[in-house]
Description:
The structure holds 2 protein chains of 2 kinds.
Chain A: E1 10-15, E2 18-23, H1 28-34, E3 58-61, E4 67-69, E5 80-82, H2 86-102, H3 117-124, E6 141-142, E7 148-151, H4 160-169, E8 174-177, E9 184-187, H5 204-208, E10 214-216, H6 228-240
Chain B: E1 4-10, H1 16-22, H2 27-32, E2 35-39, E3 52-58, E4 61-63, H3 64-75, E5 77-83, H4 85-89, H5 101-111, E6 127-132, E7 142-144, H6 151-162
Parallel strand pairs in B: 1-2, 1-3, 3-5, 5-7
Antiparallel strand pairs in B: 4-6
Amino acid sequence: MSPTMTETTVVTLKIDDREISARSDQTVLEVAWENGLFVPALCHYEGLGDVGACRLCLVEIKGSPKLTPACVVKVTQDMEVVTQSERLAKYRRSIIELLFAERNHICSVCVSNGNCELQTLAQKLGVDHIRYPYLYPKVSVDASHSRFTLDHNRCILCARCVRACDEVEGAHVWDLFGRGVDTRLISDLGTPWGESETCTTCGKCVHICPTGALVEKGKSVAEMVHARPRFAAMARVRSSSGR
Amino acid sequence: MAKVSIATVWLDGCSGCHMSFLDLDERLLIVADKIDLVYSPLVDFKDYPEMVDIALVEGAVASEEDLHKIQKIRAHTKTLIAFGDCAVTANVPSMRNLVGKKAVLQHAYFELATLDPQVPNVVVPPLLDRVRPVHDVVKVDIFLPGCPPSADTIFAALVELLEGRIPDVPALTRFGK
């Protein structure tokens, strides 16, 4: 441990008026989930580094007027966190709606219909229609890879694939290119996936994708079931190998 | 007690939501005792009544006919329900928004036509530039997503509505279901 790092201690804090003990190196989101509390998240996945991309895990922390993404804030002594409020519910619903409006998500004809975290969260958060105008962006589908397809129509830019490929597989095929609404997932700095020299065809990105943006070829509507248990095992092996 | 008047409407959709409604099967008899079906593709009334209690609207708003219809229906309906994903999200019909009306007509009536290619201008209503979900055009009171909403969902929602309650939609259905 480097001398600048503080030692891990046990802290007590309040989440939704519950007294909770946690380790000081844990994030608010980890602690909330560990204690069975529902905080929605799409970019967080156990075994991957957190980036705070989706903003769904926003919580209120006493003393701050801002909303804070729980996945990138560590717990501190006497912290008071609120995970459920009308304000949070409003923002979380808006985020889900904006994700739907930003690309072309047609659940009924999607390979991940019924196995999609965006679809499931929409239902769970009570999103039954989208109040924002759909943008209908003209985006491409990269089917150049022999086994997998990337469909930008369904990408929510959570960057789980980017991190799974970099942190667990160690290949770093994926990156996010551009800014804001124009951001796109790219392979090998912008070459077609099928021509990628770094891709090992391991499929981790495909199985970690929360939606139907990265899929196995040959899958039809509702057939793309993500093999998540397999990923958890691989992430564990990677972290215990002392990388 | 007076029966609740119900209309069902078919805009730009595949009629799958209506098929799902028929899948209520014997439960249709339970519903039939409590409702008057005053306007629907399933019955022969030609004009929309002066005032309807509940309208189930299937389909997106894609043509000028759809637009006129939905505006008239809104003006003569107490509770308007966006019935199924096409009405709620514009769903599959909205996929033409990616390429635009012109490209769709060009492909359907010129590139695929072998004899006398032309865009039809009689009987077939002109397409709108964009396919829109119903709530983008008129106020919607209740959203019932699903492609199609299952018969169980439709029945549960109808029972609640006929009892004068608002159905708990997320407990029943979701996009794509």
